[in-house]
Amino acid sequence: xxxxxxxxxxxxxxxxxxxxxxxxxxxxxxxxxxxxxxxxxxxxxxxxxxxxxxxxxxxxxxxxxxxxxxxxxxxxxxxxxxxxxxxxxxxxxxxxxxxxxxxxxxxxxxxxxxxxxxxxxxxxxxxxxxxxxxxxxxxxx
Length: 141
What we know:
Elements lengths: L4 E4 L4 H12 L5 E4 L7 H11 L3 H4 L5 H5 L9 H10 L8 E4 L2 E4 L18 E2 L5 E3 L8
Parallel strand pairs: 1-2
Antiparallel strand pairs: 1-3, 3-4, 5-6
C-alpha cells in the first residue's frame, strides 16, 4: 500500500489503537499530529467529503471548547462548523485515516481495517483488552 496517512492525537486511545492497527498490517503511515499541524479549511472539507459523513459527525462533541461555543445548537451551518474546526483543531474528531482504499473516521479504531489490505501480522488486542484480530489473523470486531 503506497501511502497511508493518519490524522493523529497521541493522547487519544482510539487514535493510538488505530495507529497500532495500521502498523500491525505492516504499514508505516504518514502521521500528522493535527493539533500541531492542522489541515487547512480546504483540506478539511476534502477529508469530510471523502469520509462520506455529515460535518457534524466529524465534529468532536466533547470538551470545553465544544461546550463554550454551544456547538450542540442546530443553528450552526456546516460552513460555520468547519470554520470552528479550523480555528480550534481539537474540535476535529479523530483519527481520520486516508488510504488508497478510502478515507474513514476510525471510531471505533477497528474501522481502519475496512481501508487496509486484509493481511494482518497475527493477533491484535486493543489497549482496553478487546481482541480485534485472532491468532489466525481474522477480524473479530
